[in-house]
Amino acid sequence: MLPGHLDTLASVALAVGYIVLLGAVGWILLKCFAFIRRRQQVDLCDRWVVVTGCDSGIGRGVLTALSQHKVKVIACCLTPEGAKAAEAAGAHWAPCFDLNHDEQVMAIGQEIIARTEGSLWGLVHTAGTVLPGFVDYQSINNYREVMSVNFFAPVLLSQQLLGALRQAKGRVVLVSSVDGIVSLPGNAPYDASKFALEAYADALRVELSFCDVAVSVVNPSTMRTPMARAFFPAHRSSWQSMAAQAPDGPWRQLWPEAWLEQYVELNTQQLERIAEDPVQVVNDIVHALAAVRPRLRYLSGRLAKTLFYLLWLMPESWSFHFKRLTIQPPPPRNPK
Questions:
Q1: What is the per-residue burial (b if ≥16 Cβ within 10 Å, else e) of 149-171?
Q2: How many Cα atoms occupy the beta-carbon half-sphere of 25 within 13 Å?
Q3: What ranges make up the beta strands (E) of the chain?
Q4: Which DSSP helix (H) or strand (E) runs through 319?
Q5: Fewest CB atoms within 10 Å of the CB: 54, 68, 278, 327?
Q6: The dihedral of CA 67, 73, 76, 80: what is its sign?
Q7: DSSP label of 150
C-alpha cells in the first residue's frame, strides 16, 4: 500500500475516533444533566394532594410518605375503618365512599374543589380491585366491576378535578401495573382495565401538557400488598361463582377443581417468593409529585425493570410461549 493511502486511512481512523469520543462525551453529559434535573424538586409543604385507595397497601404508604412532607392529603377510602386509620396516619381529610358509584365520586369531587379552594397540586389514583380467574370461569359482572373501579372511576374523578389541577399546574399520577403493558393469563378483567388506563393516560398527558399539568404512569410488578397476597386464593371465588351459574358447563373439563387447588397452592407460594417491598412504588409516586421534571413512566420493582420490560419489547411470538409456561401446573390437555 502506498504511503499516501496509509496517511488517508490514518486520517479517517482519527476522525472516526474523535467522532466516537465526542459522542461518548455528549452522551455522558446528557445523562448527567438528566440525573441533576431528576433530583430537582418542588416544595410539597402545604400543597393539596388527593390519593385514592388509602385503606391499605400502596395508597396508605403514599399517605404516610406525603404526611412526612407536611402535604395536605385528602385520603379517599372505601371503609370507615380505613378512613379512621388514614386520619391517624396524617390525612387532612379522609372521605369514605365507593368508587363504583358515579354520584358519590362526583359529590366527593365537588367537596374536594371546595376544600382546596379550586387549587389542587396532585391527584394520585392508587385504588384498584382484581377479580382473577381464567376466561372460561370469568363472569361478565367481574369485567364490569373491575373496569368500574380501575378505569371509569379514575376517569370520572380526574374529570371533576381538572380545573383545580390546571390552576395549580399540578400533577396526575395513575398507578397502572406491569399487567398494563404485558397482559398475563388468568387475569383478563384486570389486565383489560389497566390497558384502558394506559390509553387514557397517553391522551390525558398530551392534552394537559398545554396547561403545564404533568401526567405520570407507575407500573409496579408484584408487591407485598393485601391485594397481591389474596390474588391466587381469589381464583376460587371466580371458579365457584361460575360453577353456580353453569355447573355442567364444558369449561369444568378444562379447569377441574382438583387442578385449581394445585394451581392456587403452587402459585401462592411462588408469589411470596417474588413479591417486593411496595416502598419502591411509594418512592416513585412521591417523585412524580415532587420532581421538577417527573418521568412519563415509572417501572417499579426489579421484575418490572427486567422481565416485564423484556416481555414488553420482545416479539409477540416469544412472549406468547413464555406466557404459556406461566400456567403451572398446566390444565389437562385433552379434557373429555
A1: bbbbbbebbbebbbebbbbbebb
A2: 6
A3: 48-52, 72-76, 122-125, 171-175, 214-220, 297-300
A4: helix 316-325
A5: 68
A6: positive
A7: I
Phi/psi at 285 (5° precision): -65, -45
DSSP string, 100-133: T-HHHHHHHHHHHHHHTTT---EEEE-------B
pLDDT at 2: 46
Helix or strand run (H / E) with residue 11: helix 3-39
Query: What CA–CA distances, in Å, run from 279 to 87, 102, 244, 294?
Result: 20, 31, 40, 18
Q: What is the mean pLDDT of the chain?
A: 93
Q: Which domains does the chain have, with CATH numbers?
A: 45-325 (3.40.50.720)
Residue 231 backbone zone (phi > 0: left; psi -120 to 50: alpha; other: beta)? alpha
Q: What is the pLDDT of residue 12?
A: 74
| Cell, residue 115 | 376544600
For residue 114, count other CB atoms closer than 10 A to its CB.
9
pLDDT tens across 182-237, in order?
A: 999 999 999 999 999 999 999 999 999 999 999 999 999 999 999 999 999 999 99
Q: Which three cell numbers stand for residue 200?
A: 387514557
CA dihedral 277, 282, 283, 287 (to 10 degrees): 160
Cβ(122)–Cβ(173) below 8 Å: yes
Q: How far apart are CA 50 and CA 71, in angstroms?
A: 10
Instruction: Answer left, alpha or beta for residue 299, where phi above 0 means left and psi between -120 and 50 means alpha.
Output: beta
- Categorize the per-residue pLDDT at 25 as very low, low, confident or very high, splitting at 50, 70 and 90: confident
